């Protein structure tokens, strides 16, 4: 059984997509980040960066004590290796997947996240910051579009790279992007959205957080953190 500490963000969706695709038994522990639940002592024991998602595997492959993992990319890699799914064993194919997983972790996610912040949540409109991150998001969409020009999925076969990238493309309108400008990406996006496991993962998110909003109080929690908090 996997215990998943989760909230309804792109990084959270990555893990529910994997678990639904793999058919892995799991239990969700909601961590409402808008209420500051990510700072609870119990959560910090398994996620010292106070960010969701995190997992606890009660039956790790070494047969030892329950194993916790934080950071969504590491979680995807751990689960894929444990289940033997969505991450090839052969080195060339494996690193084809992992380089795109890390591309999402280091590029698409952070840049789209800054896009979200300055376009939607920042208390003041800063044209330079907005333009900077909208353009960088656009560039990254272009990289992915070219990658998908001659293959069905990002690394050829369906993999954790697709699961990692898709949730960050879902808010494309919020990111000021038009999928019509990226036909190969759009084709992949539509195929991903139609996968039954993806549909189930997003339906689950709506059950847990049916009306996601960021109130002024929540913004102070989400965007005002320092080392002292």
Automatic annotation (TrEMBL):
InterPro entries for this protein: Glutathione-S-Trfase_C-like, Glutathione-S-Trfase_C_sf, Glutathione_S-Trfase, Glutathione_S-Trfase_N, GST_C, Thioredoxin-like_sf
Pfam families membership: GST_C, GST_N
Coiled coil: none
Signal sequence bounds: none
Ranges for domain GST C-terminal: 90-212
Domain GST N-terminal: 1-87
Similarity remark: Belongs to the GST superfamily.
Record's protein name: Thiol:disulfide oxidoreductase
UniProt organism field: Acidocella aquatica
């Amino acid at each position: 059984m996997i215990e998943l500490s989760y909230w309804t963000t792109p990084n959270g969706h990555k893990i529910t997509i994997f678990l639904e695709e793999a058919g892995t038994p799991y239990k969700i522990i909601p961590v409402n980040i808008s209420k500051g639940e990510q700072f609870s002592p119990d959560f910090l024991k398994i996620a010292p960066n106070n960010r969701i998602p995190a997992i606890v595997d009660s039956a790790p492959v070494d047969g030892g004590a329950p194993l916790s993992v934080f950071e969504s990319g590491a979680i995807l890699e751990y689960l894929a290796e444990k289940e033997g799914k969505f991450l090839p064993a052969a080195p060339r194919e494996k690193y084809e997947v992992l380089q795109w997983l890390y591309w999402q972790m280091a590029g698409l996610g952070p840049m789209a996240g800054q896009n979200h912040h300055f376009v939607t949540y920042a208390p003041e409109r800063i044209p330079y910051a907005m333009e900077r991150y909208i353009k960088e998001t656009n560039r990254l969409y272009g990289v992915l579009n070219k990658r998908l020009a001659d293959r069905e999925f990002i690394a050829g076969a369906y993999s954790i790279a697709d699961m990692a990238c898709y949730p960050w493309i879902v808010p494309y309108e919020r990111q000021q992007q038009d999928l019509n400008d990226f036909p190969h990406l759009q084709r992949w996006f539509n195929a991903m959205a139609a996968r039954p496991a993806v549909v189930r993962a997003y339906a689950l998110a709506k059950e847990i957080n049916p009306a996601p909003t960021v109130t002024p109080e929540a913004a102070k929690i989400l965007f005002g953190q320092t080392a002292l908090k």
